[in-house]
Specification:
Blueprint (H helix, E strand, L loop, with lengths): L6 H5 L4 H11 L3 H20 L5 E3 L1 E17 L2 E5 L10 E4 L5 E2 L4 E5 L2 H55 L5 H58 L2 E3 L4 E2 L1 E2 L1 E2 L4 E2 L11 E6 L4 E8 L11 E6 L6 E9 L14 E8 L11 E18 L4 E3 L2 E8 L2 E6 L1 E5 L3 E6 L6 E3 L20 E2 L1
Antiparallel strand pairs: 1-23, 2-13, 2-17, 3-12, 4-6, 5-8, 6-7, 9-12, 10-11, 13-16, 14-15, 14-17, 15-16, 17-22, 18-19, 18-24, 19-20, 21-22
């Protein structure tokens, strides 16, 4: 038997220092030292210095025809709170409930600085009080003016009546006197009619002025009501129960925080409803035709791989998208409803999803790594004792990790997980040469 020794194995052996010390202590001769060294080499090779091939066993049982993909947790229902669209100047955040707080409907989530609108409300209230005072004074003055005009009207009416009586008395007097009384009568009539027209005109003027003042008061009242209603929007309250999640502020490149001045309509805080969660994943265009609504899904959290949740495909995207410019394949969004509720499920957590298209009963399958294509044939390397022999097989359907074997193997057969004919590069761990291709 010819052994090929590797000096790196010898120099890195944990037994080498002990052997060297033993040789020095015993002052062994060169031939004896050589014998000891040979024993060291045998020890190295017998303790695992040789190469072993990893294997797997052909198993028979239920086989899942499935697709695996990564995804992200989100709430099925969510409400996003945005900056109010108001006209009272720049909004500034002065209070934010801590992110991750579970809130109830009506809880205060965000407050904005209200200095500007508070001053507006104060100014409008002062203006309204002044206008109401002016209206009260105007109405009082109007009563005085109309009373004076009414008195003047009555006086002219009396003068007019006296002129009428005087004309009756002057029927039998001289012509000159009679003419004089008739002229006085006409003057009294004209004065009376003028007094009537003046009081009517004054009433119209007074009513017009009152309407103007009342209208102005109503306008200020409307402004005040709107300002007070807008001030309510300076405090944003939760419209539903949920978990507070801060949105990104693209002006600062970080999540929103106290002191930010967001633009109108800008998303600030999302309130996902934790009662119903989903996993959103992307499936490439090669596999998307295999995915359909209502298919069963196994959902696992990357942070808690021991936890598994049952899911159902709720929606399959119809428009492909390219994740980046270098990607050659487009992907389609698939939304998975997660059954039940669990406090561990949080929006943004990454998931590993296995979408199950079918379950084949009593099926023989092996790992994908064990199947190779050589010379137009599909083969595996089956272990026979301590050696691996190529065996031609026929394969069926496959999933992410395993492939069905329809002919060529029996349950319990051990197959290699790599091609044993390919030498492993001892320096890099890679392959030096391959005579076939992996499936």
């Amino acid at each position: 038997m010819k052994l090929k020794f590797n000096m790196n194995i010898i120099s890195n052996s944990p037994y080498l220092p002990m052997v060297q010390q033993f040789i020095r202590n015993k002052k062994l001769s060169i031939p004896t030292a050589a014998v000891v060294l040979i024993l060291l080499l045998l020890l190295v090779f017998s303790s695992g210095g040789g190469e072993s091939i990893p294997t797997s066993e052909a198993r028979k049982g239920p086989f899942l025809v499935s697709i695996k993909s990564s995804g992200e947790i989100r709430a099925a229902n969510s409400f996003t709170m945005t900056t109010p669209r108001l006209t009272w100047g720049q909004m500034q955040i002065v209070y934010l409930i801590p992110e991750g707080t579970i809130v109830k409907k009506g809880d205060v989530v965000i407050r904005f600085a209200s200095t500007t609108i508070d001053k507006t409300i104060q100014d409008k209230e002062s203006e309204l009080n002044i206008l109401k005072s002016e209206l009260t004074k105007f109405r009082a003055d109007r009563e005085v003016r109309l009373a004076e005009l009414d008195g003047n009207l009555k006086n002219t009416e009396l003068s007019f009546e006296q002129a009428k009586l005087q004309v009756e008395k002057m029927k039998f007097e001289a012509e000159v006197q009679r003419k004089e009384t008739e002229i006085n009568l006409q003057r009294g009539k004209i004065a009376y009619e003028q007094a009537q027209r003046k009081i009517e005109s004054q009433k119209v003027v007074e009513q017009s002025e009152e309407r103007k003042q009342v209208l102005k008061i109503k306008q200020v009242e409307a402004d005040l009501t709107r300002a007070k209603a807008d001030k309510e929007e300076y405090t944003l309250k939760a419209t539903m129960d949920g978990l507070t999640v801060y949105e990104m502020n693209w002006q600062t490149g970080r999540k929103i925080s106290v002191g930010d001045s967001p633009w109108p309509g800008m998303p600030l805080v999302s309130l996902p409803d934790l009662a119903k969660m989903q996993s959103v994943t992307q499936i490439n265009e090669v596999d998307i035709s295999k995915v359909s609504k209502l298919q069963t899904v196994k959902v696992k959290l990357d942070a808690f791989p021991e936890r598994e949740f049952k899911g159902t495909v709720q929606a399959v995207g119809t428009i492909g998208q390219q994740n980046d410019r270098t990607a050659t394949l487009k992907t389609f969004e698939v939304v998975i409803d997660i059954e039940g509720t669990d406090p561990v499920l949080k929006p943004g957590m990454t998931t590993s999803n296995e979408i199950i298209m079918a379950t084949l009963a009593d099926t023989l399958f092996i790992p994908l790594e064990s199947v190779f294509e050589k010379d137009g044939k599909t083969i595996v390397y089956r272990m026979s004792g301590s050696s691996a022999r190529p065996v031609e097989v026929k394969i069926g359907t496959k999933n992410t990790n395993f492939v069905v074997i329809t002919e060529g193997l029996e349950p319990g057969d051990k197959v290699t997980l790599r091609d044993p004919t390919i030498q492993q590069d001892e320096r890099t761990g890679g392959q030096k040469q391959s005579s076939g291709t992996k499936l």
